[in-house]
Write a structure and sequence with these properties.
The chain is mainly beta and 291 residues long. It has one domain: Porin. The chain is 14% helix and 60% strand. A twelve-stranded antiparallel barrel has the order 1-2-3-4-5-6-7-8-9-10-11-12. The longest helix is centred in the N-terminal third of the chain and has 21 residues. The protein is globular, with a radius of gyration of 21 Å. The N terminus is likely disordered.
Length: 291
């Protein structure tokens, strides 16, 4: 009986140690490039289409407080490299230069089963007229894991600094994502987002935003862990019959430091959360939607 008890105790200790190790610090660095095709529609003006090359990236760090509690910090950003600021009539076509956003997530996890938590963040959208917008967002989030698939959902709110009279503020949003792992080091994900807010004008105008995306990620056999990704994201921002639509193709690499050794284990025990830039981006493009 004693050998059996010792063996059981050893197995429990090994399992606990593994979980604790997997929830220790992990840092992930993302570096990417993308090309956005923008379509603008205005009731009293010609429709416009133009392309914008963009660089994007971020740093995310997860800290395991114990086997079930973790805190993750994010810093994400994007920069438009070129702008077609004027069309032939002198009308502005691109107010948004880019954005930088920081966020924190506090979560309770049952690794491999589920995650529930809170998130909050603050960021700045850069506008080429100098009226940069500060945005704050926060809400609830959760993940549910079954087999090789993870469901990820967020619900929250957003408020801007209201420096521009036409920018998005007082918005709520819901976001959903499905990740499926084709192997321990490759995955495909799809996501969708809907948000609703209003402009900061004296007589506020309703602003709707929609987001959708598809992403493929896979690992490469190198001397250090490295993952490549290819993605497509769409964004539609509309108000009072006018709109801006983005179609974005992106490629990049993701480099993890420390923590879990596979992409699938990272999904349940390491860096696995993010905060959407869609609200801050819409705050930047609002001047193009509302004239």
């Amino acid at each position: 009986m004693k050998p059996v008890l010792c063996a059981c105790a050893s197995a429990v200790a090994i399992s606990s140690a593994a979980n604790a190790q997997q929830l220790e610090t992990q840092v992930v660095v993302d570096l990417g490039a993308s090309f956005a095709i923008l379509d603008t529609y205005h009731v009293d003006e010609d429709d416009l289409r133009f392309g914008v090359p963009r660089v994007d990236g971020g740093v995310r760090a997860n800290f395991g407080i114990d086997e079930n509690i973790s805190v993750q910090f994010d810093l994400d950003g994007e920069v438009n490299l070129l702008r077609d600021e004027k069309d032939g009539t002198g009308a502005g076509t691109a107010s948004y230069d880019g954005a930088l956003q920081g966020a924190v997530h506090v979560s309770y996890r049952e690794p491999g089963d589920y995650l529930i938590g809170l998130f909050g963040g603050v960021g700045q959208a850069a506008l080429n007229d100098g009226d940069d917008e500060i945005g704050v967002l926060g809400g609830l989030e959760g993940q549910y894991h079954f087999g090789d698939t993870t469901l990820y959902g967020q619900i929250g709110g957003f408020k801007s600094s209201e420096r521009d009279a036409e920018t998005l503020t007082d918005a709520y949003f819901v976001r959903g994502m499905l990740r499926h792992f084709l192997s321990p080091d490759s995955s495909v994900s799809i996501e969708a987002l809907y948000g609703d807010g209003e402009s900061t004008e004296v007589d506020p105008i309703d602003i709707d935003l929609y987001g959708w995306g598809l992403k493929y990620t896979r690992g490469f056999q190198t001397s250090m862990p490295i993952y490549g990704y290819l993605g497509y994201n769409g964004h539609l921002m509309s108000s009072d019959g006018e709109s801006v639509t983005e179609h974005v193709i992106s490629v990049g690499i993701s480099i993890p430091f420390g923590g879990p050794t596979t992409l699938q284990t990272q999904n349940t025990h390491g860096v696995t959360l993010d905060a959407p830039l869609d609200l801050l981006r819409t705050a930047g493009y609002s001047a193009d939607i509302i004239d």
